[in-house]
Amino acid sequence: MGKTRLAIEATEIIKERFALHAFIPVEELTRPWLLADTILRALSIPRDPEIEAIDLLVERLKAFRILLVLDSFEHLLVEATPFEGDARELLGHLLQRMPYLHCLVTSRQKLQIPGEWDLNLMPLSTPTHEITDIAEIAAFPSVQLYLRRAQEKRAD
């Protein structure tokens, strides 16, 4: 589908409107409560062990227009334990406390937080008939995405 590619392209178009912006791939986060620390690192804000990460984010950044692009968020939407917290709740809390914060989130699931705008993406176009010309096949966005993903795994 190309959610990441679309998010990157959208960010390139609108990033000048923000004092700070960060593209944060979160697919490798193992616990939802790590999200606040991950955002701090992405924005190069030193961690203060005396202050909760979410409070530090709000304290340092609430006056700035910020764009956070959180890519591949769906795995953080699992049921949270009382000890881990909930990434959805954390994000909603940040948006509530930081009036100039904007988040572009790629996910296969809705976040279901106040103010969420949902944009359903259609699959990328694919060949509809038999094509033998390699250049014509390579022109399809779905093939380009597939090739890019394959080359990430194996450059040859």
Summarize the structure.
With 156 residues, the chain is an alpha/beta fold. The chain has helices at residues 3-14, 35-42, 53-61, 87-97, 134-138, 141-153; strands at 20-25, 66-71, 101-105. It is elongated.
Give a written overview of the molecule.
The protein has 156 residues and is an alpha/beta fold. The chain is built from six helices and three strands; from the N terminus they run αβααβαβαα. It has a three-stranded parallel β-sheet, with helices on both faces. Strand 2, helix 4 and strand 3 form a beta-alpha-beta unit. It is elongated and about 65 Å long.
Number of helices: 6
Strand order of the largest sheet: 1-2-3
| N- to C-terminal distance | 23 Å
Mean pLDDT: 87
Give a short account of the largest sheet.
Answer: 3 strands, parallel
Structural class designation: alpha/beta
Helix content: 25-40%
How much strand content do the residues show? 5-15%
Radius of gyration over C-alpha positions, nearest whole angstrom: 18 Å
Q: What characteristic shape results from the CA principal axes?
A: elongated
Number of strands: 3
> Oligomeric form of this entry?
single chain
Features:
single chain, 156 residues, alpha/beta, 3-stranded parallel β-sheet, 6 helices, 3 strands, 37% helix, elongated
Strand-helix topology:
Layout: H1 3-14, E1 20-25, H2 35-42, H3 53-61, E2 66-71, H4 87-97, E3 101-105, H5 134-138, H6 141-153
Parallel strand pairs: 1-2, 2-3
Helix pairs in contact: 2-3
